[in-house]
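Priority: medium. Attachment 1 of 2:
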């Protein structure tokens, strides 16, 4: 990417892994700093102001999940993108990291070259903006509004705290209303990946619903199409958040649930 080198903070307590990662990043043109524990990561992030953090899950002091949580809760600007490194292979750990706001994860052992490519992909998404000569129009659906140029979204006048990937997912869906996209398609169109763990999409859809839906358990905007994927339904009669809160929630026939039943399983797929 043009301009000054992008700053990447590597948080890894294994010196061999840290040396390999920082070496590959340096050769790819990134400016890097390395720390080996969670407390040092928070201190260095405040000083170094990285464009992205490569974060090991298992750290001395405080673990990577707590570091990610605190980075996401920090004031003073948009959340820094996070790519997690983890030796844990359990899906629950990976999903928890994504739920806390991590933009991507790589499981050890990993290819350093793949990690560098993943980092570049996350940064491009986080820093992407439309050309100044052709600003993107503001997208609206009921009281939900997304401004691709300003990378801001709000509902009922309240600004939404979205990660870079959540924002990209929302804008993509709002630009393609009424069309069903499988998780594979979303992984390719939004993430830019030809392959990857589909649970990444599942988690981001769930997180997005928690932030834009009046009742995430009965979604009316991002609905699930059984066995096919997800669809954005910008119905004019979408209830404002405060109206649904007063009514105590509830689902309509168009909320993506099964006829006569509760909401579909997340992702619309069952083994």
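Attachment 2 of 2:
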């Amino acid at each position: 990417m043009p301009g000054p080198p992008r700053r990447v903070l590597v948080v890894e307590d294994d010196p061999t892994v840290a040396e390999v990662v920082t070496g590959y990043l340096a050769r790819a043109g990134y400016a890097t700093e390395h720390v080996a524990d969670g407390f040092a990561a928070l201190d260095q992030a405040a000083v170094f102001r990285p464009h992205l953090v490569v974060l090991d899950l298992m750290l001395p002091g405080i673990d990577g999940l707590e570091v990610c949580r605190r980075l996401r809760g920090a004031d003073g600007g948009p959340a820094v993108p996070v790519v997690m490194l983890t030796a844990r292979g359990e899906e629950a750990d990976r999903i928890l990291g994504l739920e806390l706001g991590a933009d991507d994860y790589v499981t050890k052992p990993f290819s350093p070259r793949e990690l560098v490519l993943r980092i570049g992909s996350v940064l491009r998404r986080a820093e992407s903006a439309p050309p100044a000569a052709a600003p993107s129009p503001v997208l609206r659906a009921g009281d939900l509004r997304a401004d691709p140029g300003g990378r801001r979204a709000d509902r009922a006048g309240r600004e939404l705290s979205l990660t870079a990937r959540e924002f990209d997912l929302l804008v993509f869906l709002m630009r393609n209303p009424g069309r069903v996209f499988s998780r594979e398609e979303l992984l390719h169109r939004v993430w830019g990946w030809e392959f990857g763990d589909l649970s990444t999409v599942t988690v981001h859809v769930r997180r997005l619903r928690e932030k834009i839906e009046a009742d995430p358990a009965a979604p009316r905007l991002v609905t699930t199409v059984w066995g096919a994927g997800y669809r954005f339904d910008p119905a004019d009669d979408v209830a404002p958040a405060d109206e649904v809160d007063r009514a105590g929630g509830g689902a309509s026939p168009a909320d993506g649930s099964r006829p006569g039943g509760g909401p579909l399983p997340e992702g619309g797929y069952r083994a």
